[in-house]
Fold each of these.
Amino acid sequence: MIKLGEKIKSLRKQKNISQEVFANYLGVSFQAVSKWENGNTMPDVTMIPAIASFFGVSTDELFDFNLFETEKQVEAICHEAYQYRFSDAAKSERILRDGLGRFPGNDIILNNLLYTLDYQT
């Protein structure tokens, strides 16, 4: 789950500015900023670059996206599933399907799942 509101709040407090100052910069109400920070709503996607720019961070950092960490987690899922591919293919499949739940559309996990399903037939 994306915790964008928490990240915005944290960055805003680090800059020591009010919701009102931040809202004025973006051209929105301070109530809108409050709703973002409380997780009630999300900013419009077109505002993301302006928000990142205001705080001097990348959009990846704004969303707490770390490619290296994601790759490590995907590798760990595939490694765990591989350990069961030949002895317990159903368990291997469950691990990979759970992995796809965490990382939807990940080609590496999907390919491992296809190999596992192929092995079962």
Amino acid sequence: MQFKIENPDKEVLNIEAKLIQLPGTDGSFAVLENHAPLIAMLKKGKVRIIDKNGKEHLIDIEGGVFGVAENQCHLLLL
């Protein structure tokens, strides 16, 4: 699935991911391929991404809005 992280000025990351773990305001959650459509608010924490090659990436965020539909994932940073 495609995962993009953007802030108001630019695209921060564009990666093909197998798993994305996010710090939701109601608790941590994960997204895998073919996840049901979802929009969620995120709090300060770490986003964990496992890319298509199995490499782990950790990104600190201050919060944001995450959405997924049809294997397209977007994180808009605050």
Amino acid sequence: MSQNNRFPDSSKNRQGNEIPRELAELGQLIVTLPNARKQELEVAFQRVVDSVHRRRRTLEVVQEALSQLRLDVKYLMFDLEATRQERDLLRQQMEE
């Protein structure tokens, strides 16, 4: 496996997702280690990178859900206000 492909300078993993600068720097430092410990650290490094990407995807899903929830609440508030106005209008008509 090529060292340059495993820890690219562009701070992106093989799927093209960006990783934090500090993590990319750590990957570059691992590349310079002697082979005895390098392979073990590469595996641990890749697990950390995968964890960072999973957390980022989870955060994106949560943010999207919150945005949808905010929109839904706005629609519900609009519907509630319209219902109240209709109720008040009907009460007026019944009293007349």
